Amino acid sequence: MHLNHVSIFHSQKMIKTIVLSMAVATAAVVTGCASKPQVSGGANYAHAPNYYTVRSGDTLSGIANRYGMSYLDIAALNDIAPPYRIYVNQSLRLKGSAAQRTTSTQAMAQTAPIQRQSINLPTQRPVTPPTQTITPPPQRPVVPVVPVNPPSTLASGLRWVKPSNGAVIETFNLVSNVKGTRYGGNVGDPIFAAANGQVVYAADGLKEYGNLVLVKHVDGYITAYAHNSKMLVKSGDNVTAGQKIAEMGSSGASRVMLEFQVRLDGKPVNPTTVLPN
After folding, report:
1. What is the pTM of this model?
2. Is 247 strand, coil or helix?
3. Hey, is 207 helix, strand or coil?
4. pLDDT of residue 150 exceeding 70
5. What is the three-class DSSP state of 198?
6. How far apart are CA 209 and CA 224, in angstroms?
């Protein structure tokens, strides 16, 4: 009887050791996205979807491990800068090249590249015989023609429209922590997409912004529409300039308003630099 008790004790101790080792190994696998993922090879990548919608508990490295990819490649595909934060319901591109910065080429009109003006330089004067004296006509200076464009044409090739018909109640002021333009109005007033793009977030995960919609555009632009009473789009939807995407409200704010922000490569810019007057 004594030997049986000893044997059972050692068996239980061995099982606890194995379980503890497995727990430590599992914890190492689910460490945050700063750790370098282990790429398992092309088999998982072949089964990866073109787009992946972020779920609660996901990390960039965890998604990369799942499909045998590098989290740096996924970050490059989706213009995600360090520290590589991702959001629930965010739509991530898993296949393609990092040069494809637009998330929806089907819904976005491709504009022709800006043509540079060429100015013909005056040709060399002919050599005249020494016996002749020729006074050349006065040369008019060649002045390049500089096109005068409204501010909206400076934001790549996007066609921009105002996101609200309401009156402006606050303007862009980083000193006062106003990172966009705030429009007043009534509950239910329409909110419009400011340019063609793809919805990458539509939720209330950031309480200070309430019901928030984020739309990604070409060339590193992202627009934000905060404090909505109702959101009419979801993550992954393609939208066009002027399309109604939400209704004005006061979620996360002390009054009914729309806070509209424009970010270029992650940094807030004054919306008046891209919106029409």
Report:
1. 0.49
2. strand
3. helix
4. no
5. strand
6. 10
